[in-house]
Amino acid sequence: MIRIALTGSIGMGKSTVAAMFAQHGIPVFDADAEVRRLQGPGGALVADIEQRFPGTTRNGAVDREALAAAVLGRPDELAALEALVHPAVHAARARFILSNQDAPALLFDIPLLFETGGAEAFDKVVVVSAPPDVQRRRVLERPGMTPAKLDAILARQLPDAEKRSRADLVIDTGGSLADTERQVGRILSCLGLAGAR
Q: Exposed site from 37, 105, 179, 191, fewest CB < 10 Å?
């Protein structure tokens, strides 16, 4: 089994690329989706987050805006949140691997892969990248996003150039979807996974 990590800064197209791998039959573990599940209604982390960050939950779920306000720009608070979240995500990832142990490859969509020192756990690291103006436009089109919020998020992430330099493979998502799909196809072929479906 080939374990592939997919990473890249915010707005670079990770979700789009992960969906393309999934269309080729590669099971995908989405770390952000798992965090949303853990913090959503009835999620396993809701009570712990409320205890550590009072007032950041509502109706049995984490209020993501309130939690972001509580930790962004506060390294100690962010570290406390990560100490709650990372072990739970790691456990979910282990369950995902077990449930897909017969697959020829698994893809792990992990936005903060390099930042959390997790790259060594994977056989290949794929970085998605786009020009800064494309990235900024994409992110600022998201509901509730502001330039200040984007800058705070980018401050937590390694620069795109550094991520590209540490990647085994880079997918440029600055062009058309068809061009991105061709790049995904080439990677699957290089890894011997072209017939993964």
A: 179
Q: How far apart are CA 47 and CA 62, in angstroms?
A: 9
How is residue 157 written in tokens? 């992430």
- Residue 37 located in a structural domain: no
- Torsion angle defined by CA atoms of residues 107, 110, 111 and 113, in that order, rounded to the nearest 10 degrees: -110
Q: Return the residue matching tokens 């779920």.
A: 61
Model confidence pLDDT, tens digit, residues 126-138: 999 999 999 999 9
Query: Distance (Å, rounded) from C-alpha 38 to C-alpha 57?
Result: 12
Q: Which residue has the tokens 């979700």?
A: 15
* Residue 28: partners with Cβ closer than 8 Å, 6 or more residues away: 18, 19, 21, 22, 106, 107, 108, 109
The answer to whether 13 and 173 are in contact (CB under 8 A) is: yes
**Eight-state DSSP code of residue 168:** S
Whose tokens are 């142990």? That residue is 101
Question: What pLDDT does 195 receive?
Answer: 56
- Rounded distance between C-alpha atoms, residue 29 and residue 98, angstroms: 12
List residues bridging with 29 in a β-sheet: 108
All residue ranges of the chain with pLDDT < 70 are 194-197
Print the domain residue range for 129: 1-27+104-197
Q: Are residues 122 and 186 in the same domain?
A: yes
